[in-house]
Every structure is written in C-alpha cells, then in structure tokens.
Amino acid sequence: MLDSVRTRLTVWYTGVLALVLILFSVGVYGLLAQQLARRLEGSLYTTLEGTARLLTHEQHEGESEREAAHSALLTPWPQVSPHPHFFTATGEPATATAAASVTVQRVVVVPPQTPYIIVVRQWLEPVTAELALLRHIFAGAVPLALLVAGLGGWWLARKSLAPVVAMADSAQRLSVEHLAQRLPIANPRDELGHLATTFNILLARLEAAFGQQRQFMADASHELRTPLAVIHTTADVTLHQPSRTEREYREALAIIGQQTQRLTRLVGEMFTLAQADAGERPLQLQAFYLDELLTETAHAAHMLAAHKQVAMATAMVPDALCYGDEALLRQMLLNLLDNAIKYTPPTGQVQMTLVRHDGQYRITVTDTGGGIPADAQAHIFERFYRVEKARSRTATGHGSGAGLGLAIARWIAHAHHGTLTLAHSDATGSVFVATLPAPDLH
Fold first, then answer.
1. Cβ neighbours of 415 (radius 10 Å)
2. 3-state secondary structure of 367
3. Which of 138, 359, 369, 386 is least surrounded by Cβ atoms within 10 Å, i.e. has the fewest?
4. pTM attached to this predicted model
5. What is the pLDDT of residues 39-87, one digit of tens each?
6. Domains and CATH numbers, the chain
7. In angstroms, rounded to a whole number, what is the distance separating the alpha carbons of residues 430 and 394?
8. Alpha carbon distance 166, 184 (integer Å)
9. What's the rounded Cα separation, in Å, for the pair 351 and 366?
C-alpha cells in the first residue's frame, strides 16, 4: 500500500501533523500547569503576608499573643483553606488537626518575628480539575484533528496527483504510430504543468526525429532502388541473348560500373550521416594551412570543370593557419565545388575565395548556374532534397545526385563550430558561404 505516492504523502503529512500537535499539546499543558502553580503560590504568599501583618497589628493593639493569633486566624482570606492552623515556636500544634498531604494541598510555612509559625494551605482540586479538563480536551481534539487532516491530506494528494495520473495514462497510450498525441496540461504555470510541457516538447522532437528517419529511409530506398534497377535491367538485357558483341558487353559493363560508383558514393554519404547522427564520427583535429587545402581541392575539381568546359578561379589569403579535421573539410569543399560545377552550364565559371575577417575564415563558392528557385532555397540543406525542375535539368553528364552533399557539408561546418549558408541565388548564379573559426595568432 505504501507503494502509492498518494499514500506516502498522506502518511508523512499526518505523521508530521501528529508530532506538531503532540508537541503543541505538551507545551500548552506544561505552560498552563506552571501558570496555575505560580498563581496558587502567589495566593498563598499573599495570605501568609496578610496574616503576618494582621498578627503584628493585633499585638500592637495590646492584645495578648494568643488573642492576636486567634483574631488573625479568624480573618477570612480568599482562595485558602477554611480550616487554618497555627503552631507554637516549639513546633507543637495549637489544634488537634494533623498536617495535610501535599498531594491534595499546597502548604506554606514562614516563621514571622513572633513566637509563632504561620502555616497556610490551599486545596489543589481546582487546579487538578482544570488540568484534567485540558487533558480530556487534548485527548479528544488531537485524534479528531488527525483524522480530519488525514482525510483532507488524502483528498489533496489525490487532487494534486490527478494530473500525474492523467499524464501516465496518456503516456501509456503513446507509441511510434501515435507520437502526435500530447500529454494533458491542467495548469501550465505550476510544476506539473511545466513537466508536462517539457515532456510534450520532447515528444515533438521525437516525432520530428522519427519523421525524419522515415523520410530518410524512404528517400534512401528510392535512391538505392534506381541504380539497382538499372544494374539489374542492364545485366538481364545483356544476358537475354546468347551472343553479344564485345562492344555491347563493354557498354553494359560501363553502365553497371557507373551505377555501382553511384551506389558506392550514396552508401558512403549515408554512412557518414549515420555516424554524424550517432555522434560516432569524432573529429581528427590537427593544424594545417587552409589555403593549401583549398588549392588542392580546386586542383582536384579542375578536371571535372574542364570536362564541362567550366572555368575555375581561386583567390585566397596566404598562410591561413587552421585547426580542424582536414579530411572532413576537404570533403565539404569538394561537395560545394561538385555542386557548383554540376549545375553550371558550359562556358560558365566557378570561383572559390578565402578571406579572413573578424576572427573567422570566410570561404565563398560562386557559380554562374541558373540559380535556385526561391521556394526551394530553404530546403536545399535537407537530406535527399533535390530541385529537379530547376537545376537538375541543367546538369549534363553527371547525374542529379542523391541530395546529400549539401547536408553533409553543413554538418561538417557545424562540427567545426562554423556555418554554411546560401548567401545569394538568382538567375545569375548562386553563392555559398562557409565560415570557420580562425586561431588567434597574437
């Protein structure tokens, strides 16, 4: 039963309240008993002092000591015993009455400046009666208060934890197919509301991640299916007839080789993105000169540009010391140059520049292609996204690609605490800008 949070809260609440009430009752009872005892002692001492003064006064009036004592004892005093006694200085009682028990009486004995000892006593029955009444009140009120508090605590705990129960029920109904559902929020301003809001934000992220994964699998399947279908069809057609010329076999093998190369590149890009998503591609950081890397990359892309009759131009700041993963940055630059050359028509131009500004390296890749439509510019860094109607039709001889190059390039830039953006794109061409942190040389 104590496995329930509601029960534990109620038990803790009732237990703490019981401890507080017991301490309060004991404290009040002790203070009241002390106050009643002080009031009783004050009354006794008042009576004693009054009797002593009266005895002295009677003696001054000329009465004998016994007559003065008798007159003083017969004087009525409030809140004292109606049966006073007096003792001689020798300790012998003046009357036959025995001494009272201190359990039912309070006795005060003070010797005045006379041959007599004055004894004043008072019954404790009124005090004990008041304390007994207080004990009975506490004995009835404390359990009743605990009962009411326990029931109230149970109801409050149930009311307070109702949103948690509702969230738990909603969470149990969640599944991969129903990630669009959200937890109910009774009060977004309290702690439980904040918890539900945070959980709903997490659900939104999971929904987006699963959606992206589904889209990735669908796009990857589509991209893999096309070259596989071409390979299968080419091999099937080639082998359908018992005899083929050497030229026909070479053409079939060339087609199969091109598609195999495309598959290899696609699988490699997908593997790179999978490692990036899983955080399993750590950076191999080292110091190198970024201008030399750009020169090497431009030289590697020159043959592809020459095949399309696209001019290549570079301009860069010398001695650009950089600290990063040289292999990944080379891949980022090759992806940008390949993308620019691919969509630049013959006799066009691709230019790559490197400058240093405000503690950053700024790499700019500019092409003179047909540009990217405005409605597609916000999606070009998404995986498997391709602008088929605009740019793909201008690409000649290189295929339209799988739409992963820019996504990988942006991830590499972000992994180096940099950025990759599309700065400009229209009918005159496109401009991509990558920024990387530059080391402080001072």
1. 17
2. strand
3. 359
4. 0.54
5. 888 888 887 777 777 777 766 666 666 666 666 666 665 544 444 444 4
6. 5-128 (no CATH), 191-276 (1.10.287.130), 284-437 (3.30.565.10)
7. 14
8. 7
9. 5
